[in-house]
TrEMBL record:
Coiled coil: none annotated. The keyword Transmembrane applies. This is DUF2306 domain-containing protein. InterPro entries: DUF2306_membrane. Keywords: Membrane, Transmembrane, Transmembrane helix. The chain crosses the membrane at residues 6-22, 34-52, 64-81, 93-113, 119-138. It comes from the Bacteria. It comes from Rubrivirga marina.
Length: 166
């Protein structure tokens, strides 16, 4: 039962994450999909921490779930607090991008483990390739997206901040 929920949440996270990346940034839809993605990813990681099928103790996927939670937090906290100063958007963009790359790499590693069993070739190699491609995409695309926001005035009440309380 827990394994089925974990898989369903992982598929939801993968889908929502892809939708976030395909949306224009900073708008209402981006924020809604981002919140749904973050919530689903938290549940994926919590369920991963609770799954112990092969052994009675923690394994590599448990460690990666903690890394994923840390990466997600590093992307969410700056956006929620609008801190540090002018660099919160950059931290948000990079860490949220890495949270998705990590999710894809973990998913491929999990499928590799289920299909071929644990081992470097079916698990580690595809994950490393995904991380390398992710790094190229992130470091090529994120600066362009951020430069678009740099040309706009970022102020309270603007598209990146949302409505401010009276």
């Amino acid at each position: 039962m827990l394994g089925t929920a974990h898989i369903a949440l992982a598929v939801a996270s993968l889908t929502l994450g892809a939708m976030v990346f395909l949306q224009p940034k900073g708008g209402r839809r981006h924020r809604l999909l981002g919140r749904l993605y973050a919530g689903a990813l938290v549940l994926v990681n919590v369920s991963a921490l609770l799954v112990y099928e092969e052994s009675s103790g923690p394994g590599p996927f448990h460690v990666l779930a903690l890394v994923s939670l840390a990466t997600l937090s590093a992307g969410l906290v700056p956006a929620l607090l609008r801190r540090p100063g002018g660099s919160w958007l950059e931290a948000h963009a990079y860490f949220m991008s890495w949270s998705y790359v990590g999710l894809v790499a973990a998913g491929v590693a999990q499928v590799g483990t289920m299909v071929a069993g644990p081992g470097a070739l079916p698990v580690v190699l595809p994950s490393v390739l995904i991380v390398l491609v992710g790094a190229l995409l992130i470091h090529g695309r994120v600066p362009r997206v951020l430069s678009g926001f740099a040309r706009k005035e970022v102020r309270p009440g603007g598209p990146l901040y949302g409505p401010q309380p009276p």
